[in-house]
Design brief:
424 residues, alpha+beta, five-stranded mixed sheet
């Protein structure tokens, strides 16, 4: 009897030990599958107790795998959308790791900083030697809020201005290798416009102050000294009148330039023939005392049909060139105004040519800038404002055209305005 009891106990102990081993193995498989996010098909061993909830474990694993697949799908879609957004941005975008290694660079960033070559896998410092950018990253490491900075980038002797914004990616990205997001916006033209605006305001203030001061000074002299000799009084009145004309010309030019630069639609297109507009330019020149019409010669290309352009502004631009020739060409025999058509007729060019003293080579690059004058003394004497050629340039560019100049000292000057006859 005792032997039977011992055998029964041994069998019972063996059964529980087998159940323990089988159950432990299943639990390890179950936990490993959950940890790795994998699915698993559980098979019931022959010696496993029928009450062990194997079906419940299988359902849990399947549901867990489904949830993980959905999460991975959402994560991939989010990452794809994130990269698509950055990749399609007009601004440059870089993603860096903790050591400033580049893990993502969109095409704009590579075009700006590596001449289109891939930046991925290299350090930021290999492309940007900027204290401002490195300081921005350092401030992020110190827990400061995302901020912006500006820096100047130089490549092949060309300077470009950029504004860079930064942010930590940890709140929106789970990849530990992706830490910093840098966004670069080129502001070269904005900075240039700001400098031009400041220079314009300073120059305009100076140019306006001069005639106003002269008018005020001579007027005060007339008021304070009613017994001035008639000759001196006439001289003062003549100077007041001369400076008032200069002031009026300056204001008119400033308003014209402001309209061309500040308006969304600076030109009013109507269909005309350029030769007919130039023939009617006498209206613009009739009040210009320096223009001698006997020295003005016209030659026009045949225009079978008109084309859309702003006749008033184009006439003003060409009239300005003609007036400048008579004012500043010095000793010359004639001013020739002509037009020509390109081979296909897409472009019509107006030339204003003189055989006067010419323009120094060092000044040719700058003469279309606002308030730039070659000879300041002569310009003031002739009533010039330094804005005429800038207006000519803006009129041409507003039509999608260009303005050019060719000149040599002693051999005269030729200004040309190209206007497209057909809008592409």
């Amino acid at each position: 009897m005792a032997e039977v009891t011992v055998i029964a106990l041994v069998l019972l102990a063996s059964y529980f030990w087998i159940q323990y081993r089988i159950g432990k193995q299943l639990i390890f498989q179950f936990a490993s599958s959950i940890r790795e996010g994998n699915t698993l098909i559980l098979e019931r061993p022959m010696l496993l107790n029928k009450n062990f909830p194997l079906e419940l474990c299988q359902r849990t694993l399947d549901e867990n795998a489904t949830i993980i697949r959905e999460l991975e799908k959402d994560s991939n879609q989010t990452n794809h959308a994130f990269n698509e957004v950055l990749g399609g941005m007009l601004d440059g975008a870089l993603i860096l790791d903790q050591d400033h290694g580049i893990s993502f660079a969109n095409s704009t960033a590579e075009r700006n900083f590596s001449l289109g070559q891939s930046m991925i896998g290299r350090r930021l410092e290999a492309f940007l030697d900027s204290f401002e950018v490195l300081d921005l990253i350092d401030q992020l490491n110190r827990g400061n809020k995302p901020i912006k900075a500006e820096f100047t980038f130089r490549r092949n002797g060309i300077f470009k201005d950029f504004e860079v914004a930064s942010a930590l990616l940890s709140p929106i990205r789970s990849n530990p290798k992706e830490v910093y997001l840098l966004l670069f916006r080129e502001v070269t033209e904005i900075k240039r416009a700001e400098r031009l605006r400041k220079d314009f305001v300073a120059n305009a203030s100076h140019e306006l102050r001069t005639p106003v001061t002269m008018i005020k000074g001579f007027a005060e002299a007339l008021v304070d000294s009613p017994d001035l000799p008639e000759q001196q009084r006439s001289s003062f009145i003549s100077k007041i009148y001369k400076n008032s004309l200069r002031l009026q010309t300056l204001v008119d030019d400033l308003l014209s330039l402001s309209e061309l630069e500040g308006s969304r639609h600076p030109i009013n297109l109507t269909t005309n023939k350029l030769c007919e507009v130039i023939r009617g330019i006498d209206m613009y020149l009739q009040d210009k005392p320096y223009v001698n019409k006997d020295k003005l010669k016209f030659t026009f290309a045949e225009e079978k049909e008109g084309f859309p352009f702003d006749a008033i502004k184009v006439a003003m631009a060409i009239g300005n060139l003609i007036e400048n020739a008579f004012k500043y060409a010095g000793c010359f025999s004639e001013v020739r105004v002509s037009t020509s058509l390109s081979e296909g007729g897409e472009i019509i060019t107006c030339f204003v040519e003189d055989d006067g003293i010419g323009i120094p080579a060092k000044d040719l690059e700058y003469i279309f800038e606002r308030f730039y004058v070659v000879d300041k003394g002569r310009s003031r004497e002739k009533g010039g404002t330094g804005l005429g050629l800038s207006i000519v340039k803006h009129v041409a560019e507003a039509h999608g055209g260009n303005v050019h100049v060719r000149s040599q000292l002693g051999n005269g000057s030729t200004f040309s305005i190209d206007l497209p006859r057909f809008q592409l």
